[in-house]
Amino acid sequence: MAFLIVSIVVFNLAVILMPKRITLGEIYATSWFAAFFHFIADMFLDVKYDFYGYFSHGVDYKSLLFTFGIYPAISTLFLNFFPFYQTLLTKLIYIFWWTIFSIIYEWTVLHTSTYYYNGWHLWYSALCYPVCLLILVGNFKILRWANNK
Fold first, then answer.
1. Where does the sequence pass through the membrane (predicted)?
2. Are strands 52-54 and 115-117 parallel, antiparallel or unpaired?
3. pLDDT tens for residues 93-141?
4. Using the 8-state DSSP alphabet, how is residue 84 labeled?
5. What is the reported pLDDT for 10?
6. Where are the domains of the chain?
């Protein structure tokens, strides 16, 4: 639990202190999208199929620390520095390094007893992270498009 609290503080301080390339409205909207996306994924993969979970089996209020403490901050950091106007290769490399970071972070959280696997494997996450990051980018592009209308 201590690692989770430290992570929340560090990630959110990074968001507060970073030079902002995205607006506060975009941060707000993408933070809610990240939390919603996390709820949907966990509704099926954790609650329905019990592939993994947070702290203990079933619904746990402490898992909200991940939903509202980690996911919005990480999505904000990811999108703030995303190379929107760079080459496709640069974007793919950026997503690759965020996937590596996410795998290492997940492995660390797994070994702090705040997260457990029950049929899930780290390599499943390695396959899912790039897709989730691309969904986050797609949502952000839709948000920017809608704001410009």
1. 27-45, 65-85, 92-110, 122-143
2. antiparallel
3. 999 999 999 999 999 999 998 888 999 999 999 999 999 999 999 999 9
4. T
5. 98
6. 2-147
Span 52-104, pLDDT tens digits: 988 877 677 788 888 899 999 999 999 999 999 999 999 999 999 999 999 99
Alpha helices in the chain (DSSP H): 2-17, 24-42, 64-65, 71-80, 88-110, 122-147
Cα distance between residue 122 and residue 113, in whole Å: 15
Contact between 133 and 79 under an 8 Å Cβ cutoff? The reply is no
The backbone region for 76, taken as left when phi is positive above 0, alpha when psi lies in -120 to 50, beta otherwise, is alpha
User: Taking a C-beta distance cutoff of 8 angstroms, is the pair 112, 3 a contact?
Assistant: yes
Question: Which residues are paired to 115 by β-bridges?
Answer: 54
Closest CA to 30 of 122, 129, 143: 143
Locate tokens 């590596």: which residue?
100
* Alpha-carbon distances of 94 from 32, 74, 143, rounded to whole Å: 23, 14, 21
Alpha-carbon gap, residue 30 to 143, rounded angstroms: 8
